[in-house]
Specification:
- Chains A, B: It comes from Haloplanus salinus.
- Chains A, B: This is Triphosphoribosyl-dephospho-CoA synthase.
- Chains A, B: InterPro entries: CitG.
- Chains A, B: One of its GO terms (molecular function) is triphosphoribosyl-dephospho-CoA synthase activity.
- Two copies of one chain form a homodimer.
- By secondary structure, chain A is mainly alpha-helical.
- Chain A has a single domain, classed as Triphosphoribosyl-dephospho-CoA protein.
- In chain A, helix 1 packs antiparallel against helix 5 and helix 11 packs across helix 12.
- The longest helix of chain A is centred in the C-terminal third of the chain and has 16 residues.
- The radius of gyration of chain A is 17 Å and the shape is globular.
- At the A-B interface, helix 1 and helix 2 of A face helix 1 and helix 2 of B.
Chain lengths: 280, 280
């Protein structure tokens, strides 16, 4: 399978992995956001992932690839299914397609991004509602919710997509991966490769490990940092024990706790594990 | 979304639909054939579906498209996940890509198949073990389990893929669709479009309706015609009632009853419903 195939498969394996407390998974839906919306999002995103996987002398820009993926993902009524997953998968696919699927390779891939890539990232927010934190007080013009309206500011300040991610790295777990060579993703993928049993069970355990290791930034945006830290402690208490995590999954669902960034990291780890030849 | 996207999505929506008594579904695995294998099969089949969706002056043959799809589907350890689904989806995708997605259009699509298409169909059996009935007593040379070894016989007798399907139409539910303009598939798709609620629930109800309407030919191969008829009566008793079908799903799983051909028809109906604009 190609990197694009692996990315498409990672999107569906992630949502199929259960329990992933607080997220839609094989056994749980949210009220208006259901498993089937994620399946449609995964297929819809494919054309954007193909842009990411296209290499050569003049490859499509990562910003265009991401915007296309998000636009395609949004052709279902559930809303935002995989925006964060795609933000991670697009550079991962490009790195894999250019034989650079390593932390150093990812650093090179993201460092090569341009202001046009940043513009594509901002335009992607026009296709779907994404839960995000407020921008830094000194950068209101860079609020992602402005979508394409923020592009002149990007151009004035000469901000690349890597620059934009650096600005959010302390508040957004996906941006932090962009800024760090995807180190948590690669670590999680190693854990999946070292684990055994069905792949979706391994991914559910990887999710718990990631959540226990660091508070989920989407939970922090929606419920505050203290609650996010408490959620991680609860995940730590059931790490490695999928049966024990079932109760947590039911409770987080009831309480509206959605560690979505950790699910994004899990999808990205699934991609790396597939590229590394995990058994399936 | 393109016909190829809709076919890829139909494959995952089918396996996600639950309960589909006796089949792998969102809530049930078989012992060595799990949900994740179907997700991998769906992604792997994509390159073959793309051949089916490629049209123009000299389109790829449907036999090559089918063989490629099955080969790609087989890149996982679960075995045969979607052979029958693909046998239906390949001509459906071609018909949709040429604006002929109707019973008459499918009759035209299948009537245009050649001996080369039949050869591709036979070669596909070399990629995966498929549960099939014995060939007619007067045609042992046409046993599909011979794979490519049967191709000289196909050429000697000038048999097209449509001819091969006609020979099995009375014993194989998928072949029967090929011979009838996919009438049951189109009828089931209309039922899905007229139904409401989540699409995977609609597809589960469509599965029950199809199973109640006619005995599953895979069950007949594996357990005999009487048992297949009894299975259909049991499905009829719970038609339209997914809660009541849950018990049946648990029981069929325990008893090794796998109405897989009916699941194939359900995937094909999902494709047609998606092409007709079903809400998702």
């Amino acid at each position: 399978m190609s990197p694009v195939d692996h990315a498409a498969l990672a999107l569906t394996l992630e949502v199929a992995s259960t329990p992933k407390p607080g997220n839609v998974d094989r056994h749980r839906d949210h009220e208006d956001l259901r498993f089937e919306h994620f399946l449609a999002g995964a297929v819809g995103a494919r054309s954007g992932l193909e842009l990411a996987g296209t290499v050569g002398d003049d490859p499509p820009s990562l910003g265009d690839a991401f915007e296309r993926a998000v636009r395609g993902m949004s052709q279902q009524s559930g809303g935002n299914t995989q925006f964060g997953c795609l933000l991670l998968l697009v550079p991962l696919v490009r790195a894999a397609a250019t034989d650079r699927l390593s932390p150093d390779g990812l650093r090179g891939t993201t460092a090569a991004t341009t202001v046009d890539d940043a513009a594509g990232f901002y335009r992607a927010f026009e296709h779907v509602d994404v839960a995000v934190d407020d921008p830094p007080a000194d950068a209101p013009d860079l609020d992602v919710r402005r979508g394409a309206d923020a592009v002149p500011t990007l151009r004035d300040r000469g901000l690349t997509l890597a620059d934009v991610m650096d600005l959010s790295a302390d508040r957004d777990g996906n941006a932090a991966e962009w800024s760090s060579g995807f180190e948590r993703v690669f670590d999680a993928a190693e854990g999946v490769l070292d684990d055994d049993g069905p792949l979706t069970d391994r991914l559910a355990r990887a999710f718990l490990d990631l959540l226990a290791e660091r508070p989920d930034t989407l939970v922090a945006v929606e419920h505050g940092r203290e609650r996010a830290a408490a959620v991680s402690r609860e995940a730590a208490a059931v790490c490695g024990d999928l049966d024990a995590a079932e109760d947590l999954a039911d409770r987080f669902l009831d309480e509206g706790i959605n560690p979505g960034t950790t699910a994004d990291l899990t999808a990205a780890a699934a991609f790396v594990a597939l590229e590394r030849g995990v058994s399936l």
